[in-house]
Amino acid sequence: MEHDFWHNKWDINQIGFHLNYIHPLLKRNLKLFQLDEALKEQNEQKREEREQDSHRPKIFVPLCGKTLDIGYLLAQGYSVVAIELSEIAVQEVFASLELQPNNQPIISEWVGGKLYQTKNLQVFVGDFFALTQEDLGEIALVYDRAALVALPESMRKDYSSQLEKITQQAPQLLITLDYDQTVAGGPPFAVSSDEVECLYAANYPIQLLEEDDIIEQEPRFKAKGLTSFYQRAYRLK
Fold it and tell me: Which residues of the sequence carry a binding annotation for S-adenosyl-L-methionine (predicted)?
């Protein structure tokens, strides 16, 4: 989708996709990825260096919006790197963290836009497709709650390919929505289990962790005539 579409959504505060709570699927399923143990198995020497530098496993949150999930991940002791097109959203991420005056983000330039950075949090402002693996560093987990479903079908293959490349096929906690798009259109867009397989099965074993029909929690979509609205969580590892 065009960048102007999302900039306009934030400019007029039309952000019905934002959750004012920490996503329960993140809270229930994060422990399944055993992040500290996974990094230890990959490279014990690098892990020792991280501990000496007080660094923790790094989680990547693509198209993050102003999600409160970032604060939750930081509170669990992880480092977070994220990207978001709207600078308004990024500013609100940092405002929600209620940082001390001596820990306000340092703002610098990167090839795709701006970078807001504190000790354990980096948020790139700009185009996801401009990111590189060098920008992100070593990623222990991708947390995709709102990225894949924000993109139309024509963009999702390019997105998944770019994501795998810049994270070196890091494990993913992926959350999708699925509904009848002939009744209601996106965003957020419907992404079926078959499409998840098509996008990721070549490089990941895919495990369906949870599946729930949440139509009763989505009055906006129910009012459009939908009778079901499935939310699914996957483990790609």
Answer: 10, 63, 84, 145
